[in-house]
Amino acid sequence: MDTCNARASSQEISTWKFQPPKLVIFFTPHSSMAIALLPHYIPFNPQNTNFNSFQSHYRCSSTFTCSATTSEALSAKRHLLSLISDQERGLKTLRDPKKRSEIVEAVDAMAVLGQDMVTTGDSLSATWRLLWTTEKEQLFIIEKAPVFGTRAGDVLQVIDVENRTLNNVITFPPSGVFFVRSTIEIASSQRVNFRFTSAVLRGKDWEFPLPPYGQGWFESVYLDEDIRVVKDIRGDYLVVDRAPYAWKE
Fold first, then answer.
1. Residue 92: helix, strand or coil by DSSP?
2. pTM higher than the cut 0.70
3. What stretch of H or E contains 201?
4. H/E element holding 237?
5. Within 10 A of 53 (CB to CB), how many other CB atoms are there?
6. What is the pLDDT of residue 51?
7. Residue 23's pLDDT band (boundaries 50, 70, 90)?
8. CA angle at residue 247 from 220 to 57, to 5 degrees?
9. Rounded CA separation 115/112 (Å)
10. Which residues are within 8 A (CB) of 49 and not within 5 positions of it... i.e. 6 or more apart?
11. Can you count the helices (H) and strands (E) in the chain?
């Protein structure tokens, strides 16, 4: 799910098709997420995010360098979460330019509030779950996965700052998963560079390794105990929350 790097041209997007089983893999050079569609239908019970459940426990500490008061940050965050709460992770936004502009404006407001934050410290380490994005590759999979007989579950970024690792994950409940392993390097107070190292498409009783390639960077322009707001060089945006579980390979 990061999403943060130079935009690839249509010629740069490569597609592999394997028969059997039917399998389609999309790799986008310089994008932090490669995308897979599993070959068969897997039942899916969506885990709906309760956007009203975020607590007002934002606080400034040694973990966060803050430029905004608690009330300002809480108000801006509530506004952003309200705007994206009915957008189906960004699918509806694709067809509504006015709504997109409103959300991007709210994202920019969060970036202003977070301009003095250090977002590349230990607080970045977490299992982050996609709430909303403008990245068309990810939204394509979320929307089109049923055509290929499956459904996309949680889309995750699993970051470990201490061990310098990033896993980009697309789940296909109950047992399917596609993930790309990366190494990361802290470039600044808000920017992280990454490089792909390997990729795996895994089902219940099988596993298929894939050859990843590419590198890039992302900037977490706002981060607190609930959410993270990301911008990238491609001009895409990402809003994620801390998942209520820790994803493991």
1. helix
2. yes
3. strand 191-202
4. strand 237-242
5. 8
6. 46
7. very low
8. 50
9. 5
10. 129, 131, 241
11. 4, 12
Give the closest residue to 195 by CA, choosing from 152, 151, 237, 164: 164
* Model confidence pLDDT, tens digit, residues 67-116: 446 899 999 999 999 999 999 999 999 999 999 999 999 999 999 999 99
Is the pLDDT reported for residue 64 higher than 50? Answer: no
Burial of 196 (0-12, 13-18, 19+ CB in 10 A): buried
- Helix, strand, coil percent values for the chain (each to nearest 5): 25, 35, 45
Give the number of residues written for the chain. Answer: 249
| Residues 6+ positions from 38 with CB-CB distance below 8 Å | 23, 145, 148, 149, 150, 172, 176, 178, 201, 203
Average of per-residue pLDDT values in the chain: 80
* DSSP codes joined into one string, 158-196: EEETTTTEEEEEEEETTTEEEEEEEEEEE-SSSEEEEEE
Task: Please give the Cα distance from 171 to 19 (Å, whole number).
Answer: 22
Q: Which two tokens stand for residue 204?
A: 């219940």
Q: Which two tokens stand for residue 16?
A: 């592999």
Q: State which amino acid sits at residue 31.
A: S
pLDDT confidence bin for 211, thresholds 50/70/90:
confident
The pLDDT assigned to 212 comes to 80
Contact of 181 with 196, CB cutoff 8 Å: yes
